[in-house]
Amino acid sequence: MMRIAQIAPLEEVIPPRKYGGTERVVSVLTEELVRRGHEVTLFASGDSQTSARLVACAPVAERMGADYMRSLGRTMAQCNTAYERAHEFDVIHNHLDHPAFRFARASPTPTVTTTHGRLDVPEIAHAYSEFPEQKLVSISLDQASYLPRANWVGNVYHGIDLSHFELRMEPGKYLAFVGRISPEKRPDVAIEIAERAGMPLYMAAKVDRYDQDYYDTLIEPMLRRSRYAELIGEVDDAEKNTLLGGAYACLFPIDWPEPFGLTMVESMATGTPVIARRRGSVPEVIRDGETGFICETVDEMLDALERVGSLDRHRCRQHVEENFSPEAMATHHEAVYESVVASELSLVG
Predict the structure, then answer these.
(1) Hey, is 22 helix, strand or coil?
(2) Is 136 left (phi over 0), alpha (psi -120 to 50) or beta?
(3) Disulfide: which of 40, 165, 178, 220 matches 52 by Cβ 3.0-4.6 Å?
(4) Which H or E run includes 247?
C-alpha cells in the first residue's frame, strides 16, 4: 500500500460532467488506486466526487464557476497546499504539468508528472528544459519524442471506465465527431466527409472562447450550408455512449500531434471503429485495419468508410479492454511509483 497524492487541474470537476479529458483520466486512475487499497489524496475542486480523500483547492471547478480560464494564482495556491503536506505521501502525482515543477524541485517527496498536453511547442519545451530533473510520464511514445532529452520514467496510456460504454454489435447509419471545435481537430474535414459520403454527422463538441472566431468564421457557415452535419454540443458519458455506440464510424481527422485522443478509445469501447488521420498517437491507439483505419487524405478516409462494415465491432471493444482499461493504467502507474520511490530511497541510502 502506498500513500499517493493526485494533483488535478481545477478547470473541470472530478469526474467531469461533460468535456474534460485530463480530469476524466485522473478520476479513473484515482478510483482504481483506491480500489487496490492505496491511500489516495486528491487535490481538486471542492465539487469533485471521489472515494479518495478530497482536499478542496477551489470551491467549484473553474469552468463551472464564475471564471472559465484557469487562474494561475489559484493553481499556484493549489500546488502550495499539496506540497505543504508532501511529508504525508510516498509519491506525488502531478497532472498540472510545469506549474508544479518549482514546488516539486524543493520537495523531499518524489513527484511524477504526467504530461497531458502537447510538447511540440518551443515555449513549452523551454519550460520543461528549465527543470531537467523532473520525472515525466508520457501518454504516448509520439508525445515523448518531442522532448527526447527529458527525464522520462515511463509511458502510460490512458484508461477509461468501461462500465460507461456498452458494446453495440449493430452499426448505425450516421457518423460521429466528439471533441473540440478547434483548428487542430479539423471539424471542417469531418463535415466535408459527411457531405461527400452523403451520411448524417452528429458533432458532440464544445467551442472554447479562444476558438470562437474559428467557429464563427469557418465552422458555423459550413454547418449552416450542410445537408448532413449537425452540432449537438457537449454530451455527458451516457449521451456519449449512445452517440458513439449508435454510429457507423467515428471520425478523428486531426491535424496536430495528438498526445493521446481519449475519444478514439471511447468509440472503440462501444464497438464503433475509428477513421483517423495518421497524426500523433493515432498509430499507437488504433490497430489499422482491425479497430479502424489510419489515413492521410480525405479521399483515403472516404475510401475507409466503405470498408468499415468489414471490421469486427467486438474486436474493437476487446482491444480497449486489453490496453486501455483502468486496471492496465493503474498497473503501469504503480510500477512507475514503485520505481521512483525505490530510486529515491537508494539515493538517500
Answers:
(1) helix
(2) beta
(3) 40
(4) none
